[in-house]
Recover the amino acids of this structure.
């Protein structure tokens, strides 16, 4: 067949379906059966028209037909409650977008029909006033790869997402940042690999909170009010590589609270919290070269029974920035040995944090403490 005539019923473009009428176009302009033949001149190649409607105020539709894959995006500012539904009523035949960005808006509670069956790969809500998704993301369960929700307000907000995302097969990244309370049920996002929660009003987790995150590799809890971790809270995360509970209110490490069974765990970050005592029984990690970062907490005592199991059992233990006393109430001879003995040098920051004079030989310093702190 040498030509394509008349009306091309439905053109599928990156999942975007719409009616298009074309003049006769020779097949050789579209399909090259001989792969060794040179491509036709650029002006002969079938052009894809911009599918964006002329007016989607107060949003802006952008289309890039030259990228791979093709990009069709929507950016919205200053929306009120119900406005999103009105916007997507204008997209009668367009059903897939690369991304949706909503900023500086007051969306409130979305409803299941907000997006008029339109699907997305990425959804970003920045200071969008989103209170709850209302099940509106479900149409994108086969396409959505990332969700980002950021709110810079101060008043506490309830958790903004629905309870069940188990049907989402492509979702990889979830980022929630703002004055959000934590989820009231286990996070049911089995496909995600990256979870970042900077939920400033989140004050508790239990052993079920993360139990359904079977594919997560990076779990980051930042700036939360969580002050203690229950036993086995992370033990179900079999693919975990990076665990962060940082810049928060964590004070107590309960027994088995850092029980990590993942074979590929690389680092456990606990820096910039309020931890005042190291509990070696909190750490039960299958991978023995994992690094443990305890920098900038409130640990005052340098006790060999607390720290040595971590130093000898795992990788590097970082303790810089803690307010150590560095006196005879601490095991200072052992601390100095960690600076001298290569077998103990995985304790990073303790010797330097005590601010010993740089020109004093550590061996001499060790003898000084042995004499000063002797009880005989």
């Amino acid at each position: 067949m040498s030509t394509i005539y008349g009306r091309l019923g439905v053109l599928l473009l990156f999942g975007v379906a719409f009616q298009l009428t074309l003049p006769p176009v020779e097949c050789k302009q579209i399909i090259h059966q001989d792969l060794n033949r040179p491509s036709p001149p650029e002006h002969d190649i079938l052009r894809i028209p911009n599918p964006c409607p002329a007016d989607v105020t107060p949003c802006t539709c952008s289309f890039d037909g030259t990228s791979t894959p093709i990009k069709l995006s929507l950016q919205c500012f200053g929306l009120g409650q119900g406005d999103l539904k009105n916007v997507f009523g204008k997209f009668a035949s367009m059903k897939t977008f690369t991304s949706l960005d909503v900023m500086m808006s007051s969306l409130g509670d979305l409803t299941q029909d907000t997006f008029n069956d339109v699907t997305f790969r990425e959804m970003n809500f920045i200071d969008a006033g989103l209170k709850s998704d209302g099940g509106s993301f479900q149409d994108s369960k086969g396409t959505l790869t990332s969700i980002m929700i950021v709110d810079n307000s101060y008043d506490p907000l309830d958790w903004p997402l629905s309870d069940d995302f188990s049907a989402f097969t492509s979702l990889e990244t979830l980022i929630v940042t703002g004055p959000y309370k934590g989820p009231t049920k286990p996070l049911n996002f089995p496909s995600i690999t990256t979870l970042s929660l900077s939920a400033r009003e989140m004050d508790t987790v239990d052993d079920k909170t993360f139990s359904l995150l079977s594919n997560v590799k990076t779990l980051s809890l930042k700036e939360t009010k969580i002050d203690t971790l229950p036993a086995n809270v992370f033990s179900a995360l079999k693919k975990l590589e990076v665990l962060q509970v940082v810049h928060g209110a964590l004070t107590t490490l309960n027994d088995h609270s850092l029980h990590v069974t993942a074979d590929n765990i690389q680092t456990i970050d606990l820096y910039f919290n309020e931890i005042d005592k190291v509990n070696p029984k909190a750490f039960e990690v299958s991978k023995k070269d994992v690094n443990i970062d305890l920098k900038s907490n409130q640990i005052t005592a340098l006790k060999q029974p607390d720290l040595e199991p971590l130093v000898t059992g795992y990788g590097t233990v970082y303790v810089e920035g803690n307010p150590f006393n560095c006196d005879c109430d601490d095991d200072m001879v052992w601390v100095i040995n960690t600076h001298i003995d290569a077998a103990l040098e995985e304790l990073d920051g303790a010797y330097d944090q005590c601010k010993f004079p740089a020109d004093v030989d550590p061996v001499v310093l060790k003898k000084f403490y042995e004499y000063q702190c002797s009880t005989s």
In short: Helices lie at 83-88, 304-313, 332-340, 350-353, 362-372. Residues 1-46 have pLDDT under 50 and may be disordered.
